[in-house]
Structures are given as structure tokens and as C-alpha cells.
Amino acid sequence: MKRYKRTGYFVGTALATSLLLAACTDDSDVDEGAEETEGEEEEEADDGEEASGEPQEGGDFMMSLPGEPVTMDPHGSNDNPSAQARTLMYETLVTQNPETLEVETEGLAESFDQPDDDTWVFELHEGVQFHNGEELTADDVVATFERVLEEDRASEAAFLFEMIEDIEAVDDYTVEFTTEYPFAALDAHLAHNAAGIMSEAAIEEEEEGDELNLETEAVGTGPFEFEDWTQGDSLTFTKNEDYWGDNAYLDSVTFEIVGEDLTRVSMLENNETHFAEDIQPTLMDQVDALDNASALTEPSLSMTYMGFNTQEEPFDDPQVRQAIAMAIDNEMLVDGVYEGYGEAANGPINDLVFGYNEDVEDADATNYDPDQAQELLADAGYEEDELEITLWTNNESDVREQTTELVQDQLGEIGVDVSIENVEWGAYLDQTAEGEHEMFILGWGTVTADADYTMYALLHSDSVGAPGNRAFYENDEVDDLIMDARQETDDDAREELYAEILDITVEEAPYIYTVFDELRFGLSDSVENFVFHPNRTFDLSETYITEDAEEGGY
């Protein structure tokens, strides 16, 4: 049996160490001679350039994904499938290192400076061209952020940038941001895919009602250009031959939308795809056994959670929410549904994220305790078998559907009758944003690796609905603490404020944080330099396919 292998980027934290251990098979039944030979072969195979020579030019990189983007517009829906597509085409001023998660000037900004707490100045690379042939200038940066902050647009990404008070093009290649208050995480927010710089000319062309539609097309500066979107089926991106940096090796990238997990695995086995995303834990061994591909895992910034509509009975009562939370065994979820690929969550952020507080793991408020859960329900006025609730899931993830079934069983043990309703993905997002649910399951990634992204989106009353707070949770004290943390420049003080927020919100339980998931996927052995970022986007700028893959006829 093959050993699971890493793809080249690894976050050196305690969580990442545990993920590496979980991703390895047991070698205890291999004799010493065979083990030594395998180790030598693996070492050679892990070094892409030694195994296959120089990086190979050309090839069509086929990717099999479970979810379809909602929009190509960076200021549209804040969903992950859309982000995966947009990051191939749009570039940000700064980037987030996939190994350290630190902000770096590897983007469109050559450098940046913060002359005072409220001012950020970015110097742009010169000679950068958009896909429409226009040159990048500071005016494009200004137009991009003015667009996302337009009140009438009501962008789901506006919360990331609403502290920006003014944006000025100092000269053609210098842009200055002035914030309403000191905001230490601005650089992390500017690395978010919603900060992808758009062409001012393209923005104006769309506004004038010409043929361009930025929801279904894209005009960025990235290494790949938008080619085609056959909705419900596939998206195609081609190499940007006029890219300002080093050109990509690949000729094109194709996202194939394939909802069935087994189908994605079959496509990988039959050389119909190079990459299969979101492999069910139960299928990882099957992928591992393939002769032409490997089962891989990477650390993730993603968290799965269940939310309540806190504005509606019975979930307007914190005791009821606590009781439901205490009846769900996250460790059983990790072992039974995720098969060890992940960690039980007792809060909204893991230890890859600034603001993480390990003390939350020891909080008693929502730890598994079915007896206490029954007592809380009785105190809230519900006798056994009196409480009936509807739990929504969606067709985007078999793991989530399995999670809801296990939750149904566990809540049944304390006398709560749970009906599961499977809602189509687009309707799911719309209806949970409108508060039409009782209880739902969803995922959230702290993609900036800073707690503000999650705290403000999931817990602040200004984010109720589509921006993230689908629990419709409102707490004035929490709102104030989140804003205090936003305006605090001292990291230690910020961490203390986030600890206070976590103490309050874990106790009040507007959400049940269940599992910090891993990125589980299958990758053809013919692919080198593939980077799957912990924020679940792809960096294909240096990815290439070996000659063997070309001969294999992908």
C-alpha cells in the first residue's frame, strides 16, 4: 500500500503534526529491506525535478470538483468554489504564504508601508497588464475598492473593507488607503480573494451595459485567463501568455463539476482527471490503492458547524441551544464520520489562526454531556419527546449529510425529534441568509488566518444574513468587543479581547462548532508542484504535468 504524501507546503503547528500522522499508513508489516527500498523511491518521487527532469511545458490540467462557483465577480458571493476560480484569474496586492500563513508582497504590490496606524501605502509593480490589454495603475485599485464598498451593491465581501475611509491614487503606481480606525488585520484582508484587483475599464464597460458580464466572465491580471463556463458542467481557463511574472507551465486548467464522490474517484483512476477534490474519508483508502494517483491531506482553515436561528423559538432560548450542543459528541463525529481526518472543535477557529485560545477547548458550556442536556431542556420547559426541530443540510457534501444523520441519532437519545431536509445549494444559501431555517449545517473557513474574519462575519449583528451570521445572533456586548478588537493595534490585547468573545459566545451557543476538517483529495502521480492552500484555493502558477501524463492522454 502506498504511503500518503504531502504536496509540498506544510504548516508547522501542533495541528499540522497530528494531520501528518493521521495521513500515514501503517508500515509495521513491511520487512526492513523492502521498507528501505520504498523509502528511497518515495524520496526520489517527492522531488519533482529529480524524478522527471525540468518542469514540463504544456498540458491541460483537469480538476474534478464537487461544487460549482456562484459567480466570477470578486464582489459577488463569498463561497469557496467561486474563490477557487477567481484566484486563478484575479490577483491581490499582497498574498498569504501557504506554509506560514504570513502576509507577503508576492502580489501586485512591490512593497507597502504603514506610516501611521490609519494609513497604508502600496507601491505597485509596473508593466502589469490585465487580460483585456489595459495596464494596471493605481486607478484600477481605487476603482476596485470603491466598487466593493458601494452601498447599493451590498457585496457579501464589504465587511472585509468597510473600515477603509478613503482610497487615493497618489500617482500611477502608488495607492494610499486611509482607515476610519486602526485596523491591524487590513493586510490579511487585502490578501482575500475579494480584494482581487479588477480593471477599471472592465468595470466601466459592464456598467455601460456592453456585452461584458463580470458575473460570468473575468478580467484580472493572473496567470490564467477566463475562457468558458458551461454552467452545471465545467469551467475552462487558459494560460495568460502576457503575464507580468513567470508564465505558467500549463496550457489550460479545466474545472469539471462532478457531484458524486465515487465518480470523481473513478475519473482519477481512469486518467480522466488529474485532481479529485473533497474525497470522502471512507474513500481515502480506495484512492490510496490506485496505481496512478495518491490520497493526500493538507492542513485546513476550514470548520464545519451547525447554526440555530436564534430569533425563532425554541432557539431564542440559550438553554435550548446549550442543550442541543451538549447532546452532540464531536469526538464521535471525527471518528465515525471523518474517520480521524480532522479534529473536534469547541470554538470557531483552530490553532492556525491568530486569536486562537486553547482554553476554549476546556469550556464546560457545550462539552458532550447528554444528561446535563436533558436537564437544561427540562429547565427550559421541554419534557422528553416534546421538542421537534428541522435540520437543514445540502447536496454539496456527503460528509455533511452523514453528520446530520449522526446528529439526528444523538439528539434522539435525549428525546429530541429531528427531521432532516436536504435543500439545493443555491436555495440553501439564499434561504439561510433570509432566516427561513430552524437549524442548519454549513462550513466556514477563516481564510485570512486572523480571528477578525470569523468573529465579525459569524457573530457581529451587522453581519446578519448573507455576510455570514446566519444564526441571526445579536449581542451588544459581543458587538462592542469585536469592534474593540478591530481597533486594537497590540496583538496581545487583541488576543485577550478574542478570548472574551469566545467565552461569551461558546456559553450562548448560537452555533455548534463540530469539526476542524482537513483538505482530503486525490492527485495524479504525474502532477508536480501542485499547491492546495489551507484556505482551500489553488496555486497552479508552477504546477506542471510530466511527460508520462502527456502520453497517458488526459
TrEMBL record:
Residue ranges of the region described as Disordered: 27-83
Name of a matching Pfam family: SBP_bac_5
All residue ranges annotated as the Solute-binding protein family domain in the record: 107-463
Listed GO CC annotations: ATP-binding cassette (ABC) transporter complex; periplasmic space
Protein keywords: Signal, Transport
InterPro entries the UniProt entry points to: Peptide/Ni-bd, SBP_5, SBP_5_dom
Transmembrane segments: none
Source superkingdom: Bacteria
SUPFAM superfamilies cross-referenced by the UniProt entry: Periplasmic binding protein-like II
Gene Ontology molecular function: peptide transmembrane transporter activity
Signal peptide: 1-22
Family listed: Belongs to the bacterial solute-binding protein 5 family.
PANTHER family: OLIGOPEPTIDE-BINDING PROTEIN APPA, PERIPLASMIC BINDING COMPONENT OF ABC TRANSPORTER
Annotated protein name in UniProt: Glutathione ABC transporter substrate-binding protein
Protein source organism: Salicibibacter cibi
